[in-house]
Structure prediction request, 386 residues.
Amino acid sequence: MSDPLRYHRDGRLSDPARAWDVPMVPLLCEACDWRYLAPAGSAMARPVDAGAPAICPHCAAPAVVMLDPQEAHFPYATAPELAVPFAVSTEAIDRRVEAFAEGIPYPPEDLTPAILRQRLQRLYLPMWLVDSDVEARWQAEVGFDYKVVSHQERYADGAGWQSKEVQEERVRWEPRVGKLARRYDNVPAPALGQHAQLSRALGTHEVDDGKPYRPELVEGALVRAPDRDPEAAWPDAEVGVRQRAVQECRSAAQADHIRDFRWSPRYAAQHWTLMLLPVYATYYRDDDGVPQRVLLNGETGKLYGAKRGSLARAGRVSMIIGIIAAVIFMLGLVLALLGAVAPPLLILGILGVILGLAIGVGAVIPLARVWAFNHRQAKGPERPGE
Ligand SMILES: [Zn+2]
Prediction:
């Protein structure tokens, strides 16, 4: 167990930088109110007067400002105990970005694997880990698998009576009561109010893959500061503690199943620490130059991004189709006029005019598609953290 989180009632730690082994400075996104910590001197941790604010990995607004470390105190801004390492190769990221772009009609020119790779920012999301002593009396029904062999008699025309062996799986249930006195370590619980939305979008992380914290892990990275108290997170952790206890009681009884588990636990000696979960953040600029965020699960590569088609690109395609339509229309018109002297050309001319008109109407399709797509996306249901 590394440096324990000194859990202060007022939610502040006396020396937030101490346990990180590198000086960390507080940052704030003024657009989405996300609070970060970054190693002092890193590209993200630039002073307010050092040009335009950095792009926020969460909302993609250029609104991340550095706060005065002397004045800003984030609650629980302490070093983590564990971090899940980044484990997605550049090639895998490129493939995810390509697949993402293919899901957008006329993706903006800025949305390419190479450009998004350049802007890749490593970001860690916090997760609480709690250790706790548990004492409880418990009762449950435990189940044991067994097989029943029976014979089915069947009469078939021509074959007479036939006997067939049938095996059936059954469970024998027995009541059990017991006492439990255990310490459970590293039970996870979300440290962010938006954790559920984020993991719906990005998938979960393998909490068991956490490695002990080393200062190198946060080099050049951003760490999202927790915004959820241990008190608020405890009910989630309690569910995890109970699951572990249930499985232990089942295996202590050497049973295959367990149900109707009831207990009256008493918890003591709780110890809270943080774990960091890796996320890659990047963005592309849409037609209006507005950054659109793209996030990837740093462990699995699962990608979530805001999807915006490019009306400019669709418009160029529409224009080319429109010009072709106009040329065919004009040719048709000329042929139709020539029809006055050479009547067979009249039919050809009319066909040309009709074809030109039809293609002309079709020319709006690319524009309409992108417009409708963007409209749908803007009203989409899944927008984590907004
Ligand atoms: Zn933001």
